[in-house]
Amino acid sequence: MRVHRVRALLMGGQACVFYGAAEFSRDTDLAILADAANVARLRRALDELNAEPIAVPSLELRHLRKGHAVHFRCMHPEATRMRVDIMSRMRGVDAFPSLWRRRTVIAMADGTPCDLLSLPDLVNAKKTQRDKDWPMIRRLVEAHYFAHRARPSAPQVGFWLRELRTPELLLEVASRHPRPAARWSRRRVAVEAAIAGDAAAVGQALRDEELAEREADRAYWQPLIAELGALRRRK
Fold this sequence. Notes:
Helix content: 40-55%
Radius of gyration: 19 Å
Strand content: 5-15%
Oligomer: single chain
């Protein structure tokens, strides 16, 4: 992707590894800029990887811009059977230009830079109906909290108050940072409960949040799944 100058951001399980919430994944999930020039560069990169499309939809701007994922299997000998999943639009996540400006750049072991979704954007992207995503969100935010809690910045405290899913840690943050917690209590029931010191209410509020996000994700995907069915039938 870098050789062919594809505007792409690593997300999914491999991005979680970079952020310290380890998750084994043989898939490479990428968010890309959905414009004609970038998709042309992406096609060249996929050709070099001997990547074969998996099922539907095909790699077309109209599918990417609607929110579909496009799937490939790489047959290059140095990436045999590696699956590459491409998306451009995701529920609850900003448009790609904003994601690109906020991206995190991490150097791999050989010094090669890797562009990732920022941690807050990755957390938003993982608010799905899938069971495996919610424990990962919890681990991602916990790892960030333990790494920065000694001397946090104001944006970091805001991120924790917005996204922590561990009741005892949310109680701790609300106690240590009462002013931002008071502001967030008007936007998040779990923070309001944390200020009151009610661990059971925090846990219930977090469960309610998760259920609401899962339902919103089901509603978001319902027309896209129907469209995929129509595409399969036509193919």
